[in-house]
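Quarterly update, task 2.4: PPS-bound model.
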Amino acid sequence: MDKKEEPMTYSDAVSKAASAIYRFPLIEVEGIPLRSWIANSWSLISAFQPDPSDLLIATYPKAGMTWTQEIVDLLLHDGDAEVCKRAPTDVRIPFLEIQSPPPIPSGLDLLKTMKPPRVIKTHLPIQLVPKGFWENKCKVIYVARNAKDNLVSYYHFDRMNQTQPEPGPWDQYIHKFMKGKLPWGSWYDHVKGYWREKENRNILYLFFEDIKENPHREILRIMRYLDLSLPDDIIDKIVQLTSFEVMKDNPMANYTFIPNTVFDSSISLFMRKGEVGDWINHFTPAQSKMFDEDYTRQMADVDIPFRTSI
Ligand code: PPS
């Protein structure tokens, strides 16, 4: 049999591209630092035309995207765990703006192969989301995570993900986060941008901490937003299937499908801790004070009910 006829898995494609993987530099698009591969394809990405039935899940990096992807996929498939293991997360729910060295398929390539309604992932701040999503009144779920835990998670991710810029020492990383000098820009502007538009644009705005505290309640909110109606025992099943412990062992949701040359698991795991309040193990009291003072300044113009503990 001709070997070329065998379809290449996502994992194989990433392995094949390994020699072209390095810590990609950032290039600004409308003032937002993005990985060079994304910035260089910006005109294609911003021209993407969704279908009105498509659903967008948006988060700042490391704010609960994968968790929400799994919840949504299970809700759309009546809690069927096997169907939701049909492919890795980013193949089931393509990452709109991701562009990587070939043969890794881009988010746009994957979307072309799927018929609407599709679920689409993005980390873009609201002003960079392709206009078509708003023109077509697509549903959008936004998940926000408190700044300190989000920063800690991003720091460990940047250590292990060999396509992200080098994080540097922890103390300097805190300042990069505060200045928005990380891929996808400022956390502060990101969470504020979607917050301000949530009513105007019918965005379901959720918090990582709320999902952790009461997943059943928050999954019901997502279910209603999607105009679905599932019995309570299925919701309980989804709560269980999307617990940190179960997802950590699910090879189609825990990113072990990305080879170690790209996500170096000897440094940190993608499914690292999944907790609220881990920041306390990282910030010194002085760093915490400095961060909080800056936070008060940067967030003075909004009142978003973030919680750093539950
Ligand atoms: S990404 O790369 O931006 O899409 O990452 P993202 O999925 O947004 O964030 C990864 C963090 O979410 C945690 N996570 C979970 N926490 C609790 N429960 C479940 N089911 C879950 N799934 C993912 C994951 O562990 C990362 O957080 P940290 O704090 O680093 O552990």
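Highlight for this quarter: The pocket of PPS is lined by residues 59, 61-67, 153, 156, 242-244, 247, 271-274, 278 (CB under 6 Å).
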